[in-house]
Specification:
mainly alpha, Ubiquitin-like (UB roll), Receptor-associated Protein, 3-stranded antiparallel beta sheet, extended
Length: 412
């Protein structure tokens, strides 16, 4: 791919110049015509290579394209498609207005693929790790049915819901996370600086210390002696767990146990089922075949356990069974949802009822997230109270016993 310098005239007959990246001069001409410019002269300028002008520090600090960037891209494409802007011209405008270098490179690559005659879904498929299989499948369906504008709108709403759920969960977990971090820091400070001082004091008592005190002193001594091994073991365990969770078996087991966690498990289940219902409804309403839709949705629910149950639904439907019966066999849907699926299947309004199911799960998720902090706070208070009581008894009980003994001797 090379960079071409061009000269041309716009719709008002004014002379304009610039540079474009393309495979051939014809590709530059097609891009110019797509944005309303008649090319007059096109010449090769610089071959695009690794010497892009960025030094190693700029490349190191370059921010990657994230999900929020994809969300903004989807919203912009919906607006441009709705306004009737040609797709090549739309990408040229987005590229010119993008302020993140990584996003500019992404748009350039997609536009180059379109310039070579590829469909938009094929161009996006070159970046499947960023867009995901569900996003690309929906774009392909939009191209086939001529409803690309509606698909972009639906995808924007879907991604906004996903981001909203993540942000609310993070907000609800922020306070408990800060409390746990503060507790960990306090325990480290006590073990390093406080308890060793009391250990020297207790050593001069020449008396048997209470069990709680001996436990605290032993734990502090062990921590100070073996802290390199403790840190190394913690890091090794963390890396080992992460490696195991990346395996299909590890992810399946963790996703299954995650749904059974107290307090949090219900939220994860409802949020996952809301994602399934909205994705399935969006796919079905856009004209995706039922079996293909379930295959794609199983990969987008972000839970291997629920995904396997959706694949179980797909296999049952392939055998000719009804959707409601296959959904009941999964064991993850509530009776109300199963009844709504059954009614939707009988009346032919499954798409609308799936959207209602998604909204119902979303409301339940929102309500559960709002009560998350209130449910966790009593547990945190109980843990903090137990730690404070343990430390107080371990530190002050020997002092109180020695004081009582001294008073007894003095009174005798």
């Amino acid at each position: 791919m090379a960079i071409y310098t061009w000269k041309g005239r716009n719709n008002r007959g004014e002379s304009v110049t610039g540079q474009l990246e393309a495979m051939t001069e014809g590709g530059v001409a097609d891009q110019l015509l797509a944005i309303g410019i008649s090319p007059v002269h096109i010449a090769l300028s610089v071959v695009a290579s690794e010497s892009s002008g960025e030094n190693w520090l700029e490349k190191l600090n370059r921010k990657p394209v994230i999900e929020d960037d994809v969300l903004v891209f989807s919203r912009q494409m919906y607006t441009l498609n709705k306004a009737g802007v040609p797709i090549l011209r739309a990408f040229a405008g987005l590229e010119a207005s993008a302020d993140k270098p990584a996003m500019v490179d992404l748009l350039k690559d997609i536009r180059s693929s379109l310039d070579q005659g590829r469909e938009l879904s094929a161009a996006l498929n070159r970046h499947v790790d960023l867009f995901g299989g569900f996003y690309i499948s929906m774009i392909k369906v939009g191209e086939m049915t001529g409803r690309l504008t509606e698909v972009f709108n639906r995808l924007t709403e879907h991604m906004e819901f996903e981001r909203d759920v993540r942000e609310r969960i993070k907000q609800a977990m922020r306070y408990p996370a800060f409390v746990l971090i503060a507790m960990a820091v306090a325990i480290v400070i006590l073990n390093i600086f406080v308890i060793p001082v009391f250990a020297k004091v207790f050593a001069g008592f020449n008396a048997e210390l209470p069990l709680i005190t001996r436990g605290l002193l032993g734990f502090s001594s062990w921590t100070l002696k073996w802290w390199p091994l403790l840190i190394g073991g913690s890091i090794a365990a963390w890396l080992g767990i992460r490696a195991y969770l990346r395996t299909p078996e590890g992810r399946y087991r963790w996703d299954s146990r995650k749904l059974k966690l107290p307090i949090v498990g219900v939220i994860v289940l409802k949020a996952t089922l809301a994602r399934f219902a909205r994705s399935f409804a969006l796919s079905s309403q856009s004209g995706v075949p039922l079996v293909q839709a379930l295959t794609v949705v199983a990969q987008t629910v972000d839970n291997a356990y629920i995904g396997s149950r959706i694949e179980q639904m797909r296999d049952g439907i392939e055998r000719g069974e009804s959707i409601s019966r296959c959904a009941a066999a999964t064991g993850v849907f509530t009776p109300v949802v199963l009844q709504m699926i059954n009614v939707g299947e009988e009346t032919g309004e499954l798409d609308n009822l799936l959207f209602e199911i998604a909204e119902m799960y979303e409301r339940d998720t929102d309500y559960a997230i709002k009560g998350l902090s209130a449910a966790i706070e009593p547990i945190l208070l109980a843990v903090i109270g137990a730690l404070v009581l343990l430390l107080a008894l371990g530190v002050f009980l020997p002092l109180w016993n020695m004081g009582s003994a001294a008073m007894g001797k003095g009174g005798g």
